[in-house]
Give the backbone structure.
Amino acid sequence: MSTTTTKTKQQVSSGPVLDWAAGHGPVTGALSATTGAFAVATTGTATGMPPGWALVVGAAGALGHTVAGLRVRNAGRTLATRAASWLVGAGWTTWAMAHGPLTWAALGSLATIGVGMGAAARSVALYEEAREEEAIAAEQRAIAAELSAERRAIAEAWVERIQRICSISVRVLAVEMWPTGTGYSLDLEPQGGITWDRIAGYSVPLSGDAKLPHGCTATASPGIHQGRTILDVTTVNVLKEDCPYPSEYGPLSVLTGLPWGVRTNGETVCAYLREQCALVVGPTGSGKTNMVHTILAGFARAEDVLTWVIDLNAGSAGLPWVLPALKGELTREDGKPVRPGVDWLASSHEEAVLMLDAALAVGLHRKKAYQDLLAKANTDLLPITAKIPQILLVIDEGAEILVSTDRQMKELAKKILEVIRMLRAMGIRTVLTALGATGSVLGNLMIRREGKVRVALTGGETEGMDLGKMFPGRRGLRVEQAPYKGAGFMGTPESPAALFKAWRILPNQIREITAATSDRHPRLDDISARAAGPAYARRWDADRTAWMLDHAPTAHAHTEDGTAQPGGLNLSALRSPDDGQSSPEDEMLRRFRAEIDAQFGTAADPRTTTADGGPDRPAGLNLSALRGEEDSPAQQAALTALLAAGPEGTGASAIARALADAYGTTRQTVVGWLKTWMQDGTAVRVGEGTKARYVHRSHASDD
């Protein structure tokens, strides 16, 4: 160590460090004034300085401090104290220079003056602090008074409105303005034993009387106890615009809630799925697919969740979370491969059966294998952690599977219900989606009892959206309140059903979340993995995932026995009459086919070409819509029924009833198909209201 450094350290540690730039307090100020006066007096006496000069300097100092104090608006006592300190100090200096500063009388009087200056300075400092605090408090009182005036006006208006419309007397205990500026909440105390549900039933007329913008509502909910009500009033329509998914992909946990969107007041609404299942309904175009991706994003971010997805519609719900990782398109900073965003994806009946069997095996084995852990934790719920993760099964259109009458669908439905019924305590729950909130979907007691987390994306669609069945006991909810894509209602046991907006998640965000959360996904615990067996261990084998990467188009349609079907009209509903599984619906479809073939010539698909490269458009009936790439067997059968109805036409209910046994098709689904066919000219609507009929375009000219 150098000598210079040693000396520097010694100097630093030799005594207290003084801040010469700091201002004086009462003690240091008085000490500085008295020592200064004593120094001037002794120096002046020794040099023969005229005593009057000290008095002149003191007067100048008093005047300068008075002017400076006036500029900063000091109190009068502060100005007087400082001016007096200068004048008293100057007077003592003048007297000491005339009679000698080194006498006991001079020193004693100087000490007395110093103590007096310190006490006076402390007193005025406290007074100035009190004045400043009072000024701030007065400003806050003025702001509060202004806000209180606004709140009082709001309270008075709503007391009068509720009395006039609901015939209910209420007392407003508080009005809270939302930080987002999109509305406010009133804490009401209804008089006469009235409860919150009475006011909730008047949500629509109250909103209209308050002249709230479209998409804004006045919604009543339970208060702190049964005699109180919270009335949330939205004044800005936040449902109309897209709400982007947050760009922060931090870790989540199933135990602390998984965010699914935002309320109209800007608060995030979370789903708690440790013990609850979830049901998400939404017709075509309501944003249900986006909602599924939002749900999967929350599961991917969770550190204690493994996501299994069943989507019998070509696995489309889970492919964006799997394909980029399987193709090696994503990379991590450490160079390790990126894991898929979901842990298992099934797109076929066979794979779905394997997945559900594995889930049942895992849950039942956990019940036996983790008895010691349950006893140690003194609980009957398996402690969910990153080492023992929760398994969440997302089943797209799973509610339709549960009500389907198809033999294969019944097999899946039985296993799904077993998972829902038996495996709550062992950390296996489901998220089902459906196309509508209908009696057939919500008629299953297991769904209603276990699926307490419910979402209804309306998109303005009124058909098949029975909010009363979706959210029983919640009055005042109307589809017209949320006519925008991604908007609807969400209710949980912790948060009553109310308007919300689902986050809009983009494909690039799915890729970003997949990469960002790759090292966050837990591994299935060894006990559960052994119970799941080879079906789980080999889920990413090439032969099991070939369908994800094979995009080669099929040259011909095939029957169930593997033989190619010829081109032309195919109205067999994808079943061979000799397969031993015929149903009354099959017989009806075969009769339709015979009748149509007798009246019309079959036509080739207009998308085919002739040998010279031109379009091949022979005369005859064009039924190429039956072979559309996106059409399901049920949709083909529905179009067949529409054709067979002839010029008289038919209705959505009749078609749904005809297809219900074979395909489990609901009226809402048929309504969606008919709307699409009307838009592309395949069908024509005749009549209005309950007498409306739909006629195939080939028969429309006969009307």
